[in-house]
Amino acid sequence: MNSLPVIAIFDIGKTNKKFFLLDTSYQIVHEQSITFPEIHDDDGDACEDIKALTNWITKTFTGILSQKEYDVKAINFSAYGASFVYIDAEGKVIAPLYNYLKDYPAKLKNAFYKKYGGEENLSCETASPVLGSLNSGMQLHRVMHENPALYKKIKYALHLPQYVSFVITRKMVSDITSIGCHTLLWDFKKNNYHRWVKEEGWEKKLAPVKPSGKAFNIKFNNKTLKAGPGLHDSSAALIPYLAVFKEPFILISTGTWCISLNPFNKKPLTVKELKNDCLCYLDYKGKPVKASRLFGGYVHEQQIKRIAKHFRKHGDFYKSIKYDASIIQHLADLDILKNKFEDSDHLSGKITFEKRQLKNFKNYEESYHCLIHDIMQQQFISTKLVLQNSNVKRIFVDGGFSNNSIYMHLLAFAFPQLEVYAASVAQATAMGAALAIHTSWNPLPVPADMVKLTYYEPLPVM
């Protein structure tokens, strides 16, 4: 029996850690998933269990190589961003993987921005809104000032995607998709590290930058194969769409965050856009991708718990609710909802439903339609921010909300001038990580039918 040629992908999310094998036609032939309880860092704040993650990666890959039915030709990695793993000269992890939601000291933050030209100026140059610990450069800055003994021991600060690559490859590298992701590290105008990185002497603490799409040769447990340097997950999820579609589009990648990605908006970030939580990513070829973010998935997750408890339904009851225009009309007649989405150039990010009283709804269906409508009000503004100044004709939605008929119908109503599609790529992030090093391991062309589309007409919703 011949072994099946495959690529192995580790896809490390904030909650779920996944492992896949994909064949040369990019069909998933093996997958597994695990979650780890959070632990606490030295300040008592919740954080990732980096030791458990490391052990799982090593054990999982060792196990798959022992299975004769698969011939692993290559491996690549994707992971969430804004997180550094600190490595000493011997390759040992020497600090917790601090949570990117960890509170950042105001005094330290203010002194930093004052030293390097102010928040507005530095944000524009680095395409990074002021986000505290979500700016990973600020995490290393904090270590330098609050824990100089640790800082001195650091050989390299590796972003999480590059750390999980290091676990298997033992190569310490940096990757442009991680560096160019609201880190404050990259000067988008000069296409290099920002001057403050050099002035602080940090170039020695950041591993050499390697091309995201170039694999290197490694040997693991006597198996020779190609390995990629790892990718930031948002950038990885965009790759299948760029591989298949050439006409301009926006991708709304929905999960905890609803991120509107426009690879075809070449205009530099403005101060107004930055203040509305817009930023730029760098894709795996080093090109800027304008993006806006909405914490819509998180709000949805919290509010469906509240709705289910109030109406005494199980937690997944929302999955059975289909779009009903008469409910939207009824809520509009009661002045609970307005009959159109408000056009605004200011994204509050606040979802009105969080303050609504559930007693004002007669059933679960009404309250849930209202929740999605309230999320869409902010989604409309968020997506429009990156739609401007581009010739986009289509919107693709992937992730959780692509399966939500209420969300999709309301999005089509919000943008009647565009074609709106629910898009389905089996595990888009993992697929993107595989495609990034396609030419290194796969002799076949990229499948043209990789992305499945469902069109939503801009029907009247009221």
Automatic annotation (TrEMBL):
GO terms for cellular component: cytosol. GO terms for biological process: xylulose metabolic process. Residues 7-196 form the Carbohydrate kinase FGGY N-terminal domain. Residues 247-305 form the Carbohydrate kinase FGGY C-terminal domain. InterPro entries: ATPase_NBD, FGGY_C_2, FGGY_N. Keywords: Kinase, Transferase. GO terms for molecular function: D-xylulokinase activity. It comes from the Bacteria. SUPFAM superfamilies: Actin-like ATPase domain. Pfam families: FGGY_C_2 (PF21546), FGGY_N (PF00370). The keyword Kinase applies. PANTHER family: SUGAR KINASE, XYLULOSE KINASE. Belongs to the FGGY kinase family. This is Carbohydrate kinase. It comes from Ginsengibacter hankyongi.
